[in-house]
Design goal:
By secondary structure, the protein is of the alpha/beta class. The chain is built from 14 helices and ten strands. A six-stranded mixed sheet has the order 5-6-7-10-9-8. A four-stranded parallel sheet has the order 3-2-1-4, sandwiched between helices. α1 packs across α2 and α2 runs parallel beside α3.
């Protein structure tokens, strides 16, 4: 059953969801602990009781504290919770990090879930893809479709905002939690994912969240460079705080990053997919254009290097107060994006 018309109310969508769940009878719910899967797990439990079992996959790509937080929600609602160990890094097709990496991750998860479903005599596996996800690049959804796993939220047309609305009304504590993709999503496509690299990202984001106090952020792992993404307001605060910047540089160096940068475009979920869009610039002399833009914006003295679609800038200490202004950052980004430079990484160590 699929409901796509905007005239369908949330109450009607919920009724349709409950009808699907009731028809399935017994289900395993792929459950990461994020708001989508938490809302689906609670919905399934409300309809099916103990015949709905939440299943969390544990591997190196799961951040510190994620399993414990997921378990707490299950305990709160009385949902049976199973934990499976997956080993996707052992699959070279996953570890080499192709653009369809999530396909192999979902395959690994479903292999383990199907075995558990067989052992428990449960006929159906469901997961938390929503209606908005269908417009995004989601190779994992293809793997799920091939294996017969169902996405009831997407089937009835429930959107992300509606999921948050329901989760809030049901007192699910993660109703307003920022989206948290797995740690492997922090690596540019084609960069090998390793257990050590995942530990570096996990530690970096733990510092940003628990020490610096940033609720929504990403640490992108570009081999020797960390590229931090923060929402615009947080980025302005960070760039204007010399002490925070100094302490962060020391922490990230201890983690193992040779250089630490912030992306002047700020936070956006799924930013690694931006490189999949190629622009034909013809005969444009990119170095000459970059130099011209930096001079025109009075950002000298400056040094920079280009890594495919990432520009790494190193500016003087005097430039940082100007960069704390969001409108000025936008001017920089707009000028450089015209050169197909999607990632504008400012080295936090000034010249």
């Amino acid at each position: 059953m699929t409901a796509t018309t905007s005239a369908v109310t949330l109450e009607e969508k919920l009724e349709n969801l409950e009808e699907i769940l009731r028809s399935l009878g017994r289900v395993l719910v792929g459950y990461s602990g994020g708001v989508d899967s938490a809302m689906l797990a609670v919905a399934a439990h409300r309809v099916l009781g103990d015949d709905a079992i939440a299943v969390t996959a544990v591997s190196e790509s799961l951040g510190t504290g994620e399993l414990e937080a997921a378990a707490d929600i299950c305990k709160q609602f009385g949902i049976r919770h199973e934990v499976l160990n997956t080993h996707e890094l052992e699959n070279p097709e996953y570890a080499q990090n192709p653009s369809n990496r999530c396909y192999f991750c979902k395959q690994a998860l479903l292999t383990e879930m199907e075995q558990l479903a067989h052992d428990l005599e449960i006929p159906h596996v469901i997961y938390g893809q929503n209606a908005d996800d269908e417009d995004d690049f989601r190779p994992g959804a293809q793997a799920a479709k091939e294996r017969g796993a169902r996405a009831p939220l997407a089937e009835v047309g429930i959107t992300k905002d509606e999921i948050r609305q329901l989760a809030r009304s049901w007192d699910i504590p993660v109703w307003n939690r920022p989206a948290m993709a797995c740690l492997s999503s922090r690596f540019p496509y084609g960069t090998t994912i390793t257990a050590e690299g995942l530990r570096m990202v996990d530690r970096a984001e733990h510092y940003l969240r628990d020490v610096c106090g940033f609720a929504q952020m990403r640490t992108r792992h570009h081999v020797d460079i960390a590229r931090i993404e923060l929402p615009s307001e947080d980025l302005s605060h960070f760039l204007g705080d010399d002490a925070m910047r100094t302490h962060l540089l020391a922490e990230f160096a201890d983690i193992g990053f040779e250089r630490t940068s912030v992306d002047l475009r700020g936070f956006r979920s799924g930013s690694m997919n931006e490189v999949l869009i190629q622009v034909d610039l013809g005969e444009v002399d990119i170095p000459k254009q970059v130099d011209h833009i930096l001079v025109d914006l009075e950002l000298g003295p400056a040094e920079w290097e280009q890594r495919e679609q990432m520009l790494v800038l190193q500016l003087s200490e005097a430039a940082f107060p100007r960069l704390a202004d969001a409108a000025f950052r936008l001017r920089i980004v707009e000028r450089l994006e015209n050169l197909d430079l999607h990632y504008i990484a400012l080295n936090l160590q000034p010249l």
